[in-house]
């Protein structure tokens, strides 16, 4: 019986609200750690420089690269990232960290010193393809060798003074929608807008909905009924559109709505 061997380089992304799937994740341990994963920068002064720590938890030297990305989000929640290295000075941007050792990375904001709103970025710490960790798995007559590249993706906010969020429910409507397979479902479409100057997480979201003009007896939705909306990040100046099953008792028409959430 012939055996075949296939090598695959597989990136593994680690970070808040980020999910990566491995054929057998229990076989994989991160080769390094990166912290903190969330950091607020001031646009000028002492807090315009922050320190991050890379820790090699493996038994081999690990090559790491740090980069910065601008972070935006479209209405459907797709994150849009563009290069932002010109807005920051990274030292060092690349490093070889010996087994069991640590390396401090200093990051300095050199962009606009007087932004009018909070600015959102990603900091990415990724392993470079040198002496990669391997996971071997047998699949029928083939042996698959997965070479794992670890990547941490953190959240960075450049926060000027006196910024605040202002999230509003722009529209709510129940209507029939047809999916790509041609199946029709009764969906509740919600559009939230953050008209403020700082991000906000829709934590523990509670929503009251009723037909327009009949607000005295609303349908009340708790956070557990708002999966896919609850906990979502509303970046400063952004707009988000969500679709979920229309609750029983609501007609297929435009709705009146109020909401509350635990502000961060």
From TrEMBL:
- Pfam families given for it? PapD_N
Q: Which GO terms describe its cellular component?
A: outer membrane-bounded periplasmic space
Q: Which residues form the signal peptide?
A: 1-21
Q: Which Gene3D superfamilies match?
A: Immunoglobulins
- BP terms from Gene Ontology: cell wall organization
Keywords attached to this entry:
Signal
Segments forming domain Pili assembly chaperone N-terminal: 46-144
Q: Does the keyword Signal apply?
A: yes
Q: Which PANTHER family match?
A: PILUS ASSEMBLY CHAPERONE, SLR1668 PROTEIN
- Full protein name: Molecular chaperone
Q: What species is this protein from?
A: Pseudanabaena frigida
């Amino acid at each position: 019986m012939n055996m075949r061997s296939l090598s695959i380089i597989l990136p593994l992304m680690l970070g808040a609200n980020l999910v990566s799937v491995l054929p057998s994740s229990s076989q994989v341990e991160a080769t390094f750690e990166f912290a903190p994963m969330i950091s607020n920068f001031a646009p000028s002064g002492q807090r315009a420089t922050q320190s991050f720590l890379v820790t090699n938890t493996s038994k081999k030297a690990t090559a790491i690269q740090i980069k910065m990305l601008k972070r935006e989000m479209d209405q459907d929640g797709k994150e849009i990232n563009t290069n932002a290295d010109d807005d920051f000075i990274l030292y060092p941007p690349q490093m070889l960290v010996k087994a069991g050792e640590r390396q401090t990375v200093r990051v300095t904001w050199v962009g606009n010193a007087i932004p009018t709103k909070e600015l959102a970025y990603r900091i990415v710490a990724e392993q470079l393809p040198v002496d990669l960790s391997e996971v071997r798995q047998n699949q029928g007559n083939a042996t698959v060798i997965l070479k794992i590249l670890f990547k941490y993706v953190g959240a960075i906010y450049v926060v000027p003074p006196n910024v605040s969020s202002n999230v509003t429910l722009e529209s709510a409507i129940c209507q029939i929608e047809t999916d790509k397979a041609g199946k029709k479902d009764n969906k509740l479409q919600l559009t939230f807008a953050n008209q403020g100057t700082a991000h906000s997480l829709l934590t523990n979201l509670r929503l009251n909905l009723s037909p327009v003009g009949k607000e005295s007896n609303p349908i009340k939705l708790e956070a557990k009924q708002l999966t896919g909306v609850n906990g979502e990040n509303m970046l400063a100046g952004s707009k988000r559109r969500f679709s979920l099953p229309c609750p029983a008792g609501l007609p297929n028409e435009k709705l009146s709505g109020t909401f509350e959430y635990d502000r961060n």
